[in-house]
Specification:
heterodimer; A: 266 residues; alpha/beta; six-stranded mixed β-sheet; four-stranded antiparallel β-sheet; globular; B: 264 residues; mainly alpha; 2 domains; 13 helices; elongated; binds zinc ion; ATP binding (chain A)
């Protein structure tokens, strides 16, 4: 079957940045401002979101996925105002999201689960079976496609989660700790997949593993206490590490150096 | 497509003639996609090695089909359940059915007491609504909340399921007790709308708890202890209930966007 390219796909983007945040504030719980005045612009490519625990990474991911409404500032996703509930539905068709703690229905098979998520994202009925097969193949779960989710290992579940996030070819893909539970070989495969995805869309990967960011990301975003600390190339992060800092690799030392200098500057 | 591909052009396409430029190749391919006749002509022109290869592939596919794993059994009902509800509503359905049955039996036993079926009607859908929206009962809550069908559409589907479960047993009980159907239907609809409306602000499970306990404390407990039929479930109150149901439904639809986001 030949897939027809639709007019929407060929239409040029009318926005400069897939993600644009200005003085963004997002609450975690009722009071705590976990994202507190964040300015951020992300283009096409793979962006590694780094930061210590409590930096506000997961809260930021929830705001980018439109699950949480920002409490202040501006957030524009794919050219759409994401603080406006009215415009969410068409925007959400173009998003893919893997939460950090992603729940699932244990009785579903991998295929049924990815199909269900494609349906929730309003993919055209005729396109779903092909898209599901492709997503499952891309994460390397072809031979387990018809196994129940409850029978899968942690790493396989994570890959099923990635498959549901990419099934609709999202223009903005958000992955919160996607490499948790993957073994080293799967992690290498996953990085290849990330680079492929980042060629055409804006991919944001939140992780605590500096090595993942250096290996697979085209851009590093460093956050601390709800604010942007530093944004740049992985190579620059590594260069900061040559000046000292603590960690096993140059990139890790760069990470700790940047964080320490940001904290002492305040 | 009236003009077919001229034979020389098709021949050079089949032979992958370097003289054929990209534009000509695209023109041929676009025509081939839509014209079975030219595809057949092209198949005849194919070189013998290609035909042999295609035969081999055909044989390999046939063998694979015969010896490979059978088609997977589909579970369309499982998919349908998830499109309309969540599994966790099942125990709730049993509870509500038993509550309605118990209320019906008691009403028939003691017709002079305030009707328990009428006192139960407004709160009967609430537990179902709470379960259908609870983060705790829906494991995939966060992953589904950010999808385009979340919000108005899932709101509509899940509410339909809850009402389709609650209303028939109430209707049956009301009919056997000879009640005016509006007496149980309008309060049930009003409380459903109010729960969804408030739920958009504070979460459906919390809203159900607040409204449900308010009804029980203010109306049900006094009615049972005093044995007087409270005015709110007498026929005089019907116009008020009708107005409340209409206003509540309209407001719920207007505020359906609230359910697109996570309540805090
Ligand atoms: Zn033709």
């Amino acid at each position: 079957m030949v897939r027809m390219v639709t007019a929407t796909e060929l239409r040029p983007d009318t926005y400069a940045w897939p993600v644009e945040a200005e003085r963004l504030e997002v609450k975690a719980g009722r009071r705590h401002l976990a994202v507190n005045g964040l300015d951020l612009r992300l283009g096409t490519g793979v962006h590694g979101l780094l930061g210590p625990n409590g930096a506000g990474k997961t809260t930021l991911m929830r705001a980018l996925s439109t699950v949480h409404r920002p409490s202040g500032g501006r957030l524009t996703l794919l050219g759409t105002d994401a603080t406006e509930s009215r415009s969410l539905r068409p925007l959400r068709r173009r998003l893919g999201y893997l939460p950090q703690h992603f729940g699932f229905y244990p009785r579903f098979t991998v295929r049924e689960y990815v199909e269900y998520m494609a349906w929730l994202r309003e993919m055209p009925k005729a396109a779903i079976p092909g898209a599901v097969q492709r997503a499952v193949e891309r994460v390397g779960l072809t031979d387990r496609a018809d196994s129940r989710l409850k029978s899968l290992s942690g790493g396989m579940l994570r890959r099923a989660g990635i498959a549901q996030a990419i099934v609709n070819d999202p223009a903005l893909l958000l992955l919160d700790e996607p490499t948790v539970g993957l073994d080293p070989e799967q992690r290498v495969d996953f990085r290849t997949l990330l680079r492929e995805l980042g060629a055409e869309s804006c991919v944001v990967v939140s992780t605590h593993l500096v090595e993942d960011v250096v290996a697979a990301c085209s851009n590093v975003v460093l956050m601390d206490q709800g604010k942007l600390v530093w944004q740049g190339l992985p190579a620059d992060l590594t260069r900061f590490g040559e000046q000292g800092g603590t960690g096993d690799s140059a990139a890790e030392r760069g990470y700790t150096t940047l964080l320490a200098s940001h904290r002492s500057a305040k | 497509m009236t003009t077919h591909i001229p034979s020389p052009a098709l021949e050079s396409y089949v032979a992958a003639d370097p003289g054929l430029d990209d534009a000509a190749v695209w023109a041929v391919e676009v025509h081939l996609e839509n014209c079975a006749e030219c595809r057949a002509r092209m198949a005849e022109m194919a070189a013998p090695p290609l035909l042999a290869l295609l035969d081999d592939v055909q044989v390999a596919i046939d063998r694979g089909v015969r010896s490979g794993p059978g088609p997977v059994r589909r579970h369309p009902w499982r998919r349908m359940v998830h499109r309309w509800a969540v599994w966790s509503v099942v125990p709730w359905i049993v509870t509500v059915l038993s509550a309605v049955l118990a209320a019906f039996l008691l009403d028939r036993q003691f017709p002079e007491r305030p009707s328990l079926v009428l006192l139960l009607a407004p709160v009967a859908p609430l537990a179902g609504l709470a379960v259908a929206w609870s983060r705790r009962s829906d494991p995939a809550w966060e992953i589904t909340a950010g999808t385009s069908r979340a919000g108005l559409e899932m709101l509509f589907r899940r509410t339909v399921v809850v009402l389709a479960t609650v209303l028939p047993p109430l209707a049956l009980a009301g009919w056997r007790l000879g009640m005016n159907p509006a007496l149980w239907l309008l309060p049930a609809l009003t409380f459903t709308a109010a729960t969804l409306l408030l739920g958009g602000r504070i979460g459906v499970d919390r809203a159900a708890a607040v409204l449900g306990s308010a009804w029980v404390l203010v109306i049900v407990v006094p009615a049972i202890t005093s044995a007087d039929l409270p005015v709110v479930i007498r026929s005089e109150s019907l116009p008020v209930w009708a107005l409340a149901a209409v206003i509540g439904t309209v407001l719920t639809l207007l505020r359906a966007g609230d359910h697109q986001r996570a309540p805090r």
